[in-house]
Structures are given as structure tokens and as C-alpha cells.
Specification:
Helix content: under 10%
Largest sheet: 7 strands, antiparallel
Distance between the termini: 20 Å
Order of helices and strands: EEEEEEEEHEEE
Number of helices: 1
Radius of gyration: 15 Å
Shape: globular
Structural class: mainly beta
Length: about 190
Amino acid sequence: MLPASGTTGVPGASTIRCVPAGLRNKATINNVGTRVYTADSAGHLQFAIYTNGTNMRPANLVSTSASMSLATAGVISSALSSKVQGGPGGANVADKFWFCSNTDSTKATFSSVNTTSAFGQSIIGASTAGNVLQASGSGVVISHLSCSGSACKGGSSTYGAWPSSLAGAGWTEQATIKMPMMAIQFVSVP
């Protein structure tokens, strides 16, 4: 996972945002969370884990978190709907998979993914070399992928309704740091 960058802009409601992740060793994840910087008394956040597709994009849904309230700034967390075993020989995902988020808030801000290195961009890939290869001192390039509305598989990115597959979604390469950073808790490392 990429390092946190501190506060971020508002991600936007009902937009699925995904970043690639990986495990070098087999491990089981049971909880996820993030840090809320700007609270929203009516807002909620949810995370999901998707398999990696053949085109290095999110594919099949593996597990989701519960809906987490954004009413108070600080660390929030949730158990996953099912434990996820990943890494080489993992039962649910291989060494590459996708962390995804969605919120119904138009106000909350979170600890976010820092994209100042080209590591994440080289994994995500892009339609142009300029989106992958950062020019000297030019700031950020791709931080994550997003889809919303009809661009998402199944035609919806409505908060709380994760598509069973995102394979074939129309992804937008995002160059802004808006995706909430997902922290994970391991239940076991076999």
C-alpha cells in the first residue's frame, strides 16, 4: 500500500474509487478502517475488496465492510463481511487485488493515498505514458481509478450497493488525492 498523505479533498458521494494492493505472504484480513479528518454527521463510508482482473483492473467482489458512520473525526473501523485470505496461495485473492471505497458524504475528508512516487501508477497502468511517468516536480499523476453511475458495471455506483463484479467498468484515471486510505487488520499470518 502507498503511504498516507494527510487530509484529502472530499471524495464525492456515490463514486467507487479503487487502488491496487498486494500481499507478499499469505495472510488473512478481518477488519478495515481509516482516519476521518472532517466529520459529516449524516455521512457514511464503506470499503470493499475485489479480485484483480486480467486487464489489471478490479474484477470480482470478495468482501465488504459494514457502513461506517462519519459523524465523528478520528479512526473508524469495521469487520469485513467475510475474512479475506490473500497472498501467494491465498484462498480468496492472489498477491494482487483491489481496495475500493464508496461514501454517501459530500463533506467528509479522510487520510488518503499519497501518489508522489510512481509505484502505484506503474501497477495501475494508463492509456498514456504521461499519466504513469511523473515529470520532475510536476506533482501527482494517477492516484486511483474511479467509476460512477452508468460507467460502473451494472450501471450503478449507489452507496451501499457493491456490484458483484467490476470487470468491464468504464474507469477514470484519477490524478487527485481523494481516495480514503484503507488500513487493514490481519487476523492471522499462516
